[in-house]
Design brief:
Radius of gyration of chain A: 15 Å
Order of helices and strands of chain A: HHEHHEEH
Largest sheet of chain A: 3 strands, antiparallel
Mean pLDDT of chain A: 83
Low-confidence stretches of chain A: 1-19
Structural class of chain A: alpha+beta
Oligomer: homodimer
Shape of chain A: elongated
Strand content of chain A: 5-15%
Largest interface: A-B, 43 and 43 residues
Number of strands of chain A: 3
Distance between the termini of chain A: 40 Å
Chain lengths: 125, 125
Amino acid sequence: MSNAKVLPLLEPADGQGVAPCCPPLTERPMTAKEAETAARMFKALGDPVRLRLFSAVASHEGGEACVCDISDVGVSQPTVSHHLKKLKEAGLLTSERRGTWVYYRVEPSVLAAMGKLLTIAPAVA
Amino acid sequence: MSNAKVLPLLEPADGQGVAPCCPPLTERPMTAKEAETAARMFKALGDPVRLRLFSAVASHEGGEACVCDISDVGVSQPTVSHHLKKLKEAGLLTSERRGTWVYYRVEPSVLAAMGKLLTIAPAVA
DNA sequence: CACCTGTATTGATGAGCGTCAACATAGACA
DNA sequence: TGTCTATGTTGACGCTCATCAATACAGGTG
C-alpha cells in the first residue's frame, strides 16, 4: 500500500493532457462538488510545514526525496510523517519504499492542474 | 477601512511584473518565512465555501461582485461575511462599499503569483 | 424622524487540526 | 536470532476554525 490513490482529484492523464478536476477559478463559479475537490489540494498546501516538505520534494533532484533528506523543518519526526501522509492523501505526493528508506515524489499532473486553476485568462480554444 | 492591505503577501507590482512572494515550489526548498507567507494564501483557498466565493467573484463580470450576487453557497449570511473577511485578510480580495452594497474584487497579481508558485519548470531567463 | 434592506460583528459551540511522547513496524546486517 | 536505523501509528493535549443565532451598523427611502 505504498502508492495508493487516495483521492480521485484528477484522472491519470491518459495521453499527455492534464485532465484537471475543475476549470480555472476565473472561468465560472465553481460548483459545490468541484470546490470540495479543489479545496482539499489547497488545504494540503495551507500549512507552512507541509508546504516546505512539498517544496523540498518538488525541488529535489529527480523530483523525489527520501524522508531523511527533507525532515529538517523544525518539527518532530512523527509530525513530519503525519504531514507527508496528509500530502499523500491529498494526492500531491506518492511514496515508495526502497530498502530502509521511503522516497516521496511529486505528482506532476496535480501541480499542473492546480496551476491551471489559477489561470487568469482561460484562452478559449 | 475598506481596501486595507492586511498582509504583505506581495509587493504592489511596480511596473507590470508580479513580484511574487516566493520562487516556484519546484525551484528550491522554501524557507520557513516563505512558507509561512505562501501557506496563508493556500489556506485561504483551502475551504470549499471560500473557494466558491472566490471563484464567484473572480468569474463575475468585471472581476467584481456584490455580496448579494454570490452569497448563495449554502451557509448563513454571517458565515459568508466571515469567509469574505478571511479572503480579504489573506490578500486575495479587496472590498469597497458603494451605497447599500459592498463589492468584492479579486487581486489579480496575487492570482498570478500563486500560479507561478505552481510552475513546473522555472524556465531560467 | 422611522423603517427597511444589505452587510458586519459578537459570542458560543462543536469539530478538526498540529504537535508531541511513546510505541510499533520494516528492512538491513551481523 | 538479535540489534540498529528509518519510518509509521497511536493517543492525548491545546488550539484553531467553521458555523449559527442574535445583534449591531450602514445607507437608502419614506
